[in-house]
């Protein structure tokens, strides 16, 4: 149990968003423990700032339930999680989009749609009144469109190189994504002396990125 052990507990995702998220928090003035090369999943010393290193999809859960006071995660993951966490800052890093992608030969109505984002995709289908089966995959989603497992997929696009290389078409952008700071609502009140200035500084950094 870690409740109360650290001054501030932050949830950061392994992978792409870790480096930029860590750098943004450090630039905002937090004294962060080193995470590189450590085998442990909880980094930090008692009474100081701790970092929990999590899978992307688990970050909203840890913050919503207050195990972490705040975290960094992609908007795509937030849209999928459906968790109602406070999202005060768009960090403007990890920019990508969630798009509807099809094989050029798939031109008929969409009946089967494969994705790592089933909740988000289901919501889009309902909003549009489209009737299709959502097939949840754990990765290599383009393969579903290439093999005919599905007649459309919803996946992350950044440069578009992956879909071009696979000979697929980005039919429509469904949502834009970038990394967000998320904060537990109760922690915001209890640790406002730490969290308010952090939010303020991250907002300034984000503004500078937008202008730069
Ligand atoms: N080109 C991209 N491809 C995938 N994700 C990207 C890309 N650009 C930015 N992102 C962001 O990075 C996040 C994914 O990071 P990463 O690829 O490290 O995760 P992962 O390998 O899918 O691991 P996990 O299982 O933890 O989700 C996405 O949620 C998105 O917000
Ligand atoms: O538009 P692009 O710039 O090509 O980026 C999009 C690709 O990047 C991600 O894959 P990643 O490389 O993370 O591998 P993954 O399938 O293991 O997530 C994502 O799943 C897309 O395939």
TrEMBL record:
GO terms for cellular component: cytoplasm. CDD domains: PBP2_HisGs (cd13595). It catalyses: 1-(5-phospho-beta-D-ribosyl)-ATP + diphosphate = 5-phospho-alpha-D-ribose 1-diphosphate + ATP. Residues 55-203 form the ATP phosphoribosyltransferase catalytic domain. Keywords: Amino-acid biosynthesis, ATP-binding, Cytoplasm, Glycosyltransferase, Histidine biosynthesis, Nucleotide-binding, Transferase. It holds the Pfam family HisG. Its EC number is 2.4.2.17. The keyword ATP-binding applies. Lacks the C-terminal regulatory region which is replaced by HisZ. Heteromultimer composed of HisG and HisZ subunits. This is ATP phosphoribosyltransferase.
């Amino acid at each position: 149990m870690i409740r109360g052990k650290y001054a501030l507990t932050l949830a950061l995702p392994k992978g792409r968003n870790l480096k930029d998220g860590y750098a943004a928090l450090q630039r905002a003035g937090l004294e962060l423990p080193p995470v590189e090369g450590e085998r442990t999943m909880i980094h930090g010393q008692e009474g100081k700032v701790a970092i929990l290193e999590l899978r992307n999809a688990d970050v909203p859960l840890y913050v919503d339930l207050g195990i972490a006071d705040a975290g960094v995660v992609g908007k795509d993951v937030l849209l999928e999680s459906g968790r109602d966490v406070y999202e005060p800052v768009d960090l403007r890093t990890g920019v990508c989009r969630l798009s509807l992608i099809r094989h050029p030969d798939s031109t008929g109505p969409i009946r089967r749609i494969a994705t790592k984002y089933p909740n988000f995709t289901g919501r889009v289908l309902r909003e549009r009144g489209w009737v299709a089966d959502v097939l949840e995959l754990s990765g290599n989603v383009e393969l579903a469109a290439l093999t005919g497992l599905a007649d459309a997929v919803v996946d992350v696009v950044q440069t578009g190189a992956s879909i071009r290389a696979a000979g697929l078409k980005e039919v429509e952008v469904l949502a834009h994504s970038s990394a967000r700071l998320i904060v537990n609502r109760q922690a915001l009140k209890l640790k406002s002396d730490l969290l308010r200035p952090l939010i303020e500084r991250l907002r300034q950094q984000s503004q500078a990125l937008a202008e730069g």
